[in-house]
Amino acid sequence: MVWPTDYDVKLDEYDAMDLPGQQLAASQASSTLDHILHLDVTAPAPCQRLTAIVASIGKSSRDIESIEKMLAAGMNIALINFVFGKLDEHIETIKNIREATKNYSRSVGRTCPLAIAGMLYGKKIRTGTILPTFGEKVELKAGENLRLTTDETYRERCSENIVYVDYMNLSEQVTKGTKVYLDNEKIMLLVDVVSKTTVTCKIVVGGHLGSNKDVFVSNTVLDMPNYSERDKELIEIAIRNQLDILIAPFVNSTDAITELRHLMGERGRRIAIVANIQTIEGFHNFDDILAKTNGVMITRQELGSDISPNKLVIAQKNMIIRANKANIPVLVNAHILKSMRKKRAPLRSELCDVANCVLDGADGLVLSAETAIGQSPVDTIRVITEVCKEAESCVWSERMFLEMMNKTPMPCDQTTGTALSAVLAAQRLLAAAIIVMTTSGKTAQIISRYKPRCPIVAVTRYAAIARQLHLWRAIMPLVYEETPKSDWEQDMKERIKFCTSWAMERGFMRVGDPYVLVSGFVGAGASNTARIEYATDDVE
To answer: Whose CA, among 159, 206, 272, 529, lies 20 to 30 Å from 151?
Structure first.
């Protein structure tokens, strides 16, 4: 989810009885119409964001100082796109992220559990290199013809007439009328003539093409391995450097997840796998994929081309709510704040898009080029943080709670029953937080499913668990590093004190504010207790 940032408004700035971001009149509505009618545009936003921010690290942000500033602004998961850059550059970036996290942890006096994710190469097709004679880019003009070739002669001799692609079976996979997109779909081609090594296309949407750009073939399941030899090298790097999350690209079925787990083996069993849904095939097999993966990412760029842009809004809403129901974290990727690659202020339409992703139920949002090569990665994170807060205050959490509860099978287990009690109590109390004492993080994940309006502070002794908890909405992981005490009750009191003092220090809890404490009795093996407490200066 999120950690408090250096820019958050603190509760101390409000009157004792005020809790910003609640939209009380709207939350108590009896219908969707009444809920929307009662949203107050003058009401202050919540102090804490509940939606995770995944930020790509690239040329604009890979130095230690920039990463520290991004952490302070609200980055929760640092994403390294392995498609771009060399292996030694990726290793250096991982080291920089770790060093920046240590520096930031020292500055705030707590271990910051920043997660590191890596995105694999997968079924990616790329163009060759532009011939130096033509400069860095060539112009492809609409209406003209372009030949795509697999002839190795042209690998480093691409021009405005012929472009090399690194997929040898391309001519066997396309037919006349197939749409082919180049460079993040900036350029659109229509296949006209297919021969053994060359596909001749009509340029429908032109543009400037540089070297080594991606190629996407619409509505085609490519007959190529899920993972290349390069991917296997990257998986080894991820395991050796103890990454927290691996993103599997172009997941069309559960086979890709099963194969990745096999490649990771016993040494990589603790790395969470996030399935990237980029094709209509992945959409059709979505429920099966949810049953196998630790999380999903909806990449709207390729998916929009495969499923048609007009149907993308339906696919996004449908997949998000299916993931919510299964309690699998779901991230939304592509064109989040695209204009901020070159500008310091976003388009209004982009802000509305971000808000709608939050309202749809996304656990997290992924910034790609905006922070990897954009001019203002820190400003981008600050902008998305603020719009997420406003959108989260508009979520009808009470209705979502009831609907999710009604979808919960009966009888439920004791942990789920405790989670339901905790969320309901937090709603009625206007609690500042739900504090969860957890070992595996499972209880916090279950609570997240029922959409509380307040942060879920998950206190754990395991840093790796804490880092992966950033995938779930509203979970604020906190690492407690003290050695367990033989006296369980005393140990519990000290963990509570550690959490509440930090929450008050960071400004999202005040003395006297109610919170819900979720834990398990010693030896219970699961969370089975939810009790209401009030924050004090000291916990005896």
So the answer is: 206
Looking at the chain, the number of H-run helices and the number of E-run strands are: 19, 22
H helices of 184-253, where? 229-240
Contact 325, 287 (CB under 8 A): no
Dihedral sign, CA of 509, 512, 518, 522?
positive
Report CA 486 to chain centroid distance, whole Å.
39
Helix (H, G, I), strand (E, B) or coil at 330: strand
Rounded-to-integer distance, Cα 208 and Cα 539, Å: 64
Measured distance CA(419)–CA(527) in Å, rounded: 9
Q: What is the pTM of this model?
A: 0.92
Amino acid at 52: A
Average pLDDT per block of 10 residues along the chain, 540 residues long: 79 78 91 95 93 96 96 96 91 97 94 96 90 93 96 94 94 93 92 94 96 89 88 96 96 96 96 96 96 97 87 96 97 91 91 96 96 94 96 95 95 95 96 95 97 96 97 97 91 94 93 94 78 82
Q: Alpha-carbon distance 406 to 408, whole Å? A: 5
Q: What token pair was written down for 83?
A: 């498609």
What are the structure tokens assigned to 20, written together? 């910003």
Render the burial of 374-392: b for 16+ CB within 10 Å, e for the rest. bebbbbbbbbbbbbbbbbb
Taking the CA of residue 103 as centre, how many other CA atoms within 13 Å lie in the half-sphere pointing to its CB? 16
The two tokens of residue 413 are 């287990």
Paired tokens of 396? 């009808």
Compute the distance between CA of residue 148 and CA of residue 153 in angstroms, rounded to an integer. Answer: 12
Q: Which domains does the chain have, with CATH numbers?
A: 49-122+243-394 (3.20.20.60), 125-217 (2.40.33.10), 398-534 (3.40.1380.20)
Cα distance between residue 357 and residue 365, in whole Å: 8
pLDDT for residue 85: 86
Q: What is the pLDDT of residue 539?
A: 46
Q: Which are the contacts of 323, defined by CB distance < 8 A and separation ≥ 6?
A: 290, 296, 329, 330, 361, 363
Alpha carbon distance 384, 4 (integer Å): 14
Partners of 217 in the beta sheet?
A: 180
Q: What is the pLDDT of residue 524?
A: 64
Cβ(516)–Cβ(422) under 8 Å? yes
